[in-house]
Amino acid sequence: APTIVLFRRDLRVDDNAALATAADRGAPVVALYVLDEETKDLRAMGAASRWWLHHSLAALGRRLGQTGVNLFLARGRTGEVVAKAIAASGADWVLWNRRYDPSEAAVDARLKAGLREKGLTAQSFDGALLHEPLLLKTGSGGFYKVYTPFWKAMTDKVHVRDPIDPPGRVDGWQGELGSLSLNELDLVPTKPDWAQGLRQTWRPGEEGAQARLQEFIERDLAGYERRRDFPSRLATSRLSPHLAFGEITPFQIFASLRRSKSSGTSKFRSEVGWREFSYHLLFHNPGLAQRNFRPEFDAMSWRDDKRALRAWQHGLTGYPIVDAGMRELWRTGWMHNRVRMIAASFLIKDLMIDWRHGEKWFWDTLVDADAANNAASWQWVAGSGADAAPYFRIFNPVLQGEKFDPQGDYVRGQIPEIGALPDRYIHRPWEAPASLLQDSKIELGKTYPTPLVDHGAARERALIVYQSMKDGS
Ligand code: FAD
Fold first, then answer.
1. How far is the CA of 138 from the centre of ligand 1 (A)?
2. CATH class of 129-162+206-284
3. What is the DSSP secondary structure assignment for residue 419, as one 8-state letter?
4. Backbone angles phi, psi at 404, to 5 degrees
5. From start to end of 118-158, where are the E strands?
6. What GO biological process term is on the record, naming one (predicted)?
7. What does each C-alpha distance from 266 to 155, 275, 387 come to in angstroms?
8. What would the pLDDT profile of 444-462 be if each residue is shown by its tens digit?
């Protein structure tokens, strides 16, 4: 009888334990992707993620096709779709790679129990993470809340296995499931076509992921530790969306680094380690995207300011480094990590807007939107998270811009309307002399906004509000 392999955020053929096990079994393989937007508690994917998913499924379909397997696409509740696929194909094994978002893991646990009750074989495998969040424990048996000891424990205790070879020719099941075409999944609206910048920037799919990894290792790994904070250099791997959709595994990344003597290797490994840590936190704190990790933050008085929120979302705060980041996000579905921190800090601390509004916007617009990394990072910036930035650390958007984009190349690339300003004023246009603004064809308040808030005053306000929250007053 056939084996069903469920695909979710593991859209790859290489290093795919579930697929390799199915191929080894030798029975016909049914590859199935279920778009489950019906099961309660599963968070709906954002628009940028849906765009990525569409193209990633297309790439996966092609790769599976080369091995002889059809990719079937379906919509509905996971359990019901799998039951139908079993009825239609006569499959007696169902395999998948594990998910660690607690609401997704719960769906999978119910599925496994249901299948086993019926006497079928249901088995799950690793692949998304180097560590099993349930198994890595502190000395006292709890979970880790601080990154450094977490990463030390990972390094000391977790064996990083080699990637699993892709199967050769597989016996693909040739029947019909009444499945949908990719366009019928309806992931991306045809009008309006907002995805031009995404198409120009990305190549979803595992071949794109492998090409990115090789290019990064050859070109940028040496010096990663020095250059990773400078957004105009594009010196980071930009693997995040590929990782988020499981087109590449951390096992493959670590295996490729094994022979590397480059200076940036250990820093890069530890950044991938932050992803492990975020999942560790999410696994043990299912509400990480909705609830403050530190409950004292529930008393925080956030401002309800829709106009300011909209200005931030659209890159119109008047602070060039913040606006450049938000526009990069809108155009390409991605933002450089340093700028994510600056933009998030601005929303939370300068505008005093609840971090959850920022988390939601990123969730909708990032191609790498990731349940663990996004929630953990937002809480980190807010100070409400585990191992978070201290509340009195408030990024100064001007000084951050001058430090990490000293020639203003990043800002000029994203905000051409202020591009003619000299380096000295590129991060503080409001200080430029009127004649210079005129020569540069800039009319502050018209062609580019004046600052939404005065950073100095906003900083004082944030310190007072945070302090009174801490004092419980
Ligand atoms: P590289 O520097 O090349 O790092 C390699 C990989 O390590 C990344 O792809 C990522 O998987 C992981 N990584 C790197 N930095 C971090 C970090 N700080 N935390 C967790 N993992 C990290 N990352 C996401 O993948 N999805 C998100 O939704 C997301 N939201 C974020 C929101 C905010 C407010 C902030 C400050 C950060 C967020 N990050 C998120 C983390 C980080 O910004 C991105 O992972 C990184 O910018 C991706 O670019 P890269 O692949 O070139 O990173």
1. 25
2. mainly alpha
3. T
4. -100, -5
5. 121-125
6. photoreactive repair
7. 11, 15, 21
8. 999 999 999 999 999 999 9
Within 13 Å, how many C-alpha atoms sit on residue 191's CB side? 0
| Residue type for position 41 | D
Residue minimizing CA distance to atom 50 of ligand 1: 238
Q: Is the peptide bond before 192 cis (omega within 30 degrees of 0)?
A: yes
Q: Identify whether the C-beta of residue 401 lies closer than 8 Å to the C-beta of residue 427.
A: yes
CA 36 to mean position of chain CA atoms: 19
Q: If we measure between CA atoms, which residue out of 379, 179, 188 comes closest to residue 277?
A: 379
> Which atom number of ligand 1 is nearest to the Cα of residue 237?
3
* pLDDT tens string 280-335: 999 999 999 999 999 999 999 999 999 999 999 999 999 999 999 999 999 999 99
Residue 410 CB coordination number (10 Å): 26
- What does the alpha-carbon distance between residue 319 and residue 321 come to, in Å, rounded to a whole number? 6
The one-letter amino acid code at 11 reads L
Residue nearest atom 48 in ligand 1 by C-alpha distance: 240
Measured in Å, residue 373 CA sits from the centre of ligand 1 at: 7
For residue 394, list its beta bridge partners: none
The 3-class secondary structure across 66-102, one letter per residue, is: HHCCCEEEEECCHHHHHHHHHHHHCCCEEEEECCCCH
Question: Which residue has 């099993």 as its token pair?
Answer: 132
Q: How far apart are CA 470 and CA 298, in angstroms?
A: 11
**Residue (of 77, 100, 60, 69) closest to 204 by Cα position:** 60
Fold of 3-126: Rossmann fold (3.40.50)
CATH 3.40.30.10 fits 295-468, yes or no: no
Cα–Cα distance measured from residue 84 to residue 178, given in angstroms and rounded to the nearest whole number: 10
CA max distance for the chain: 80
- Return the active site residues: 271, 274, 302, 337, 355, 378
Number of other CB atoms surrounding residue 190 within 10 Å: 7
Domain ranges for the chain, please list them: 3-126, 129-162+206-284, 295-468
Token representation of residue 464? 């007072």
How open is the CA angle 149-151-157, to the nearest 5 degrees? 95
Average pLDDT over residues 39-49: 96
How many Cα atoms are found within 13 Å in the side-chain-facing hemisphere of 430?
A: 14
The protein residue whose alpha carbon is closest to atom 27 in ligand 1 is 374
